[in-house]
Amino acid sequence: MKVILYIATTINGMIAKKDGNSDFVSSEDEASFNKICRNTGCVIMGRNTLEYFKSLPIESWPNTDGIHIALTSSKSLSVSHPQIYFTDSPQSALKLAEQKNKSGIVVIGGSKTWGSFMKENLVDEIYLDIEPLAFGEGMPMFIGGDFEIKLELIESKPLSPQTIQLHYRVKK
Amino acid sequence: MKVILYIATTINGMIAKKDGNSDFVSSEDEASFNKICRNTGCVIMGRNTLEYFKSLPIESWPNTDGIHIALTSSKSLSVSHPQIYFTDSPQSALKLAEQKNKSGIVVIGGSKTWGSFMKENLVDEIYLDIEPLAFGEGMPMFIGGDFEIKLELIESKPLSPQTIQLHYRVKK
Fold it and tell me: Touching check for A120 and chain B: CB below 8 Å?
């Protein structure tokens, strides 16, 4: 099971403003994000990220025809997407993806969900799209505990003249 | 007066571990850092960064033959470097550099010093060297208040197969 984190960030590791707004993400970044999610066919997201996508039509979800797994302890979420599953830990999300015959998953946020996969050392690859701005305060990339993870840079490429994508493998 | 921030960071915007240790910085990163500091001939640093350099011989300072300005309210610091000046705000540091006939300065850290220059919108360019690792907790790049600053990517280049340097201009 290959676990990929896909992250869009400011230059100082903020993934959203204090209010959760991430409207700084470029269209080139979104296109790359949607392509990787759809190729993989299975995405995992936290409760807040799910709340964001709930407001969008299903054809705008990053993984329209695939499986979505939401990490939440809530049993009362009303979501109309036909292929969404709820679970309460990174490990149980991965088990669920395996049961659905998936060989890879993309973890699409937010900070607590990415942080929990990193802390449990479950990540194989990271895509990092760096947008040209800096926030003094905001949502940091990882929340939920300490870790130190070494990476290997696989590729660096421009998604546009202003957005750089770094692709890393996690050293294990 | 051109104001440059030179920053080495993890992929998630941490510039040091919780204890202040930044031994993850690569030798290629250090070589680029020293070159830019020496070309500019004037560096500004905060109190903690000065404490770090105090422990090193002068020939290992990033700007051996140039001017060093330390941002600190302390008047009791003992430093043996022949060209070091003390001041207590970003604005007074820039005024001092002008009086010394400098046309540019490099702000070399740490988080509070970089944060204060960003918050006051005094920065013209940023060099960001991204090292291949992630810390769950640590010293964030900017401390000291909120701001939102838009940048323009001037150049992206590898300093080594594992370290990417992004060079930005601040949009004003």
Answer: no
Question: Tokens 């004037």 label which residue?
Answer: B42
Q: What is the ipTM of this complex?
A: 0.95
B positions 121-140 inside 8 Å of A (CB): 126, 128, 130, 132-137, 140
**Where are chain A's structural domains?**
2-170
DSSP per-residue codes, A92-155: HHHHHHHHTT-SEEEE---HHHHHHHHHTT---EEEEEE-SEEESSSEES--SS--EEEEEEEE
Instruction: Identify whether the C-beta of residue B73 lies closer than 8 Å to the C-beta of residue B89.
Output: no
Q: Do B13 and A17 touch (CB under 8 A)?
A: no
> Pick from B19, B22, B30, B27: which is nearest to B133 by CA?
B22
Output the pTM of the full model. Answer: 0.95
Start-to-end CA span in chain A (Å): 15
Class of domain A2-170: alpha beta
